[in-house]
Fold:
Amino acid sequence: MEVQTGYKPHACRFLITDQNVKHLPVQPYDATREEGPLRHVDGVWYWNHTYTGEFLLEASLLLNDCGKVDFIRHHAQLCSIGGCYEQGKEGDGAAGRVIAYILSRDTQASDKPLIITDPKKALSTAIERGLSQICMALEAISGKLNGPLKLDGSVDSALRAALLQYAEGERKAATETAKLIGSDKLFRERLGAMVEGHFGLKSDVLAAELKKAK
Ligand SMILES: [Zn+2]
Structure:
């Protein structure tokens, strides 16, 4: 850990790493033995809230290890990742792309932190926000879609391809692919079926939109 006086209040900055940090101006910290500002006693974490706490993880943070995942506004200027263009943006774009990836690849790896279990099992607002963003980004709004594909099977193939393109950041190509789909309603119905097939849960956002369209 080290002291960071550039913050008000000053921060205790923790670097969580398994690398050799001898060259850094930090000192080791054992939360089970030290007096504070951070303590871990009998499985419970305590911290001194009169200071800012900062935790830097020198590793990939696996979604499956997380208790909950949400999409929040990115810092206005700062980012540790080179080539990031998310500065200052709300989390909607990220939500859309992550949910598009999960659905198009049908990967279960990060489902757990995206599902709510209390008071009952449901999709998180993170997922619902992502779905709403997908409909906007792929222009399945205000009757814009009017393509040749009408059958569930072919709509599903085009939808999966569009989602994957969108997830990979090829937004223009993704909207071109989505344009093949017969109508906004078909897009939303099949997206809803994909969500239900993957998560085993219905999307309230897509159901509400379908009701409006009828
Ligand atoms: Zn960033």
User: Anything to note?
Assistant: Residues 147 and 180 are 4 Å apart (CA to CA). The chain has a mean pLDDT of 92. The chain has six helices and seven strands.
